[in-house]
Batch of 2 targets.
Target 1
Amino acid sequence: MLQDDFLWGGAIAAHQVEGAWDEDGKGPSIADVMTLGSVDKPRQITDGVEAGEYYPTHKAIDFYHTYRDDIALLAQMGFRALRTSIAWTRLFPTGDEAEPLVAGVAYYDDLFACMREHGMEPVVTLSHFEIPLAIARSGGMAVRENARKFERFAEFCIRRWHGVVRYWLTWNEINNQFNTSNDLYGWTNSAVRLSAEADPERAMYQAAHYEFVSAAKVTAIAHEVDPDIMVGCCVAADVIYPLSCHPEDVLLASDALHSTLFFTDVMCRGEYPNYARKLFERRGWELDITAEDLAALRAGTCDYIGLTYYMSNVVDHSHQADISASTSQSSAHMVDNPYLQKSAWGWQIDPSGLRYALKQFDERYGLPQFIVENGIGLVEKPDGAGRIQDSNRVDYLRAHIEAAKEAVETDGVDLMGFLAWGCIDLVSFTTGEMSKRYGFVYVDVDDRGEGSGRRIKKESFDWYRGVIASNGERL
Ligand code: P53
């Protein structure tokens, strides 16, 4: 049985839904200069907003104007929580103004009030791939002063929405940037083009360090404001298996898991693990990590682990591939799992992997956990009768919720809630497509932003309502 106050709901992110990218004084963010891609065509990052390029976030699903209706619709499923992010540049257009924009503050005031009117707990990410472009231009999070700007922004948010927002997440999927093989992840996590760095890996660790420190400081500030506020870290918990029992595969998988565990180790324990210290030594890196930073890390460990989960991966020590165009693989040793099916975007479907991830975190840290994203991207369009029959989505979510329940009931995992990613169709992060759909609600907008914008409930809508009403018993 799941706890009575289990936080059922969905998750979205500002840049993937709001649109209105330059309205009411909003400044450009790093997401606003990412073009449309596809499964085999990576999104490009342009130097600024260039004429003739198409940028999917500029319109997205126009949530900035439709949020009241959209939230009322999602409320019909009985959502107890809705996760979204605050677009930093809607408040502070270059990330460093002394005062926030009145219109931006009013928008989030009303957005959170609207959630509360519908009985939803807002779960708010402070940075979901939305760093101000101006900050990218001054070195992104590889520059200490820029991380300080994030702290000031975050402190403003936590104070402003005190009493309204109890659950916060600092950096969305902070561990994606561990994949330094292409520019997408360093850009979206840290506003740094890693390929332009002399040593991309070093730059990644330095940026991650400043982010760790800023997250810890923000967590400590939140607790000063109100000890009841809960601030989580957020990691993509894509688990990694060895292809075989060959000892080299097993060791490789154990090392490859550092792509997640390095980040949770620092944020949950408040100190650098031995393997990281050794790595820095071996590479001869003198990272800017001060004694004061280390004290801040210890004083601001996260209250819970916010994990996103989509897939598992497999590594084979004898395999070496070019992954620079892959949106699903983060290591050159990754190969297909012969036992699993993949989504149309190559993401391997593995409900047991979710239980594995939850167990692993619980055994390692013993902290509460919150599944803040899970779901499957599908190609969909209404049938002749105008219905969207998404039984594949129901199958995917059912199996993952079952695995999560097993982790609670058998393994004793302390699970706070389950949020379905993209509960209303939105712009895909990795490809920028609208046609990679995740929602219980269909949005009539195509990859080029054309369409009526009409919202249609899919078949999964009623199913999920039943799941929530029965607290996960009726699957
Ligand atoms: P899309 C993998 C790689 C990159 C981002 O992704 C990811 C993941 C999943 O672990 O993260 C999240 O839209 C992200 C969301 C994103 C969602 O996965 O490419 O937090 O912003 O939309 C799904 O299918």
Target 2
Amino acid sequence: MSGNVTFTIIKPDAVKSGHSGSIIKMIEKAGFKLLEMKLVSLTKEKASEFYEVHKEKPFYDRLCNYMSSGPIIVMKLSKNNAIEDFRKLIGSTNPQDAAEGTIRNLFATSIEANAIHGSDSDENAIIESDFFFNN
Ligand code: ADP
Ligand code: MG
């Protein structure tokens, strides 16, 4: 059982293609409450900072270019067992493996442009939401 808070990003591909409303609707329908929300654009530097844990990965540079390629919507959400339930709602990183009806299954176009981010631990949910909302 995880805690009550998670953090999410509707990524540039999903905002660009007009899927933000549908995604937010799915999030609310699944029982998550919005604690904070805003539309922002990341510089490549900010995107690199956010994804620093992946800096050794071969896809890091492309990921940072992609995440700074257009506006994103960041949200802090609450629900019981938030981390686990949200990861279930979004589906696997690679949309080809994402379960039927998950957000990535419906809206992701590739393993990189996969529509949405979800925190992977209680600790990271706080670090990631503070990155956008507490400074
Ligand atoms: P998740 O977002 O499911 O937690 P990761 O933390 O492993 O996945 O990766 C962070 C993000 O980096 C992914 O959501 C995706 O946008 C991108 N990514 C992951 N793996 C790859 C890959 N093999 N090629 C390109 N981009 C990737
Ligand atoms: Mg991750």
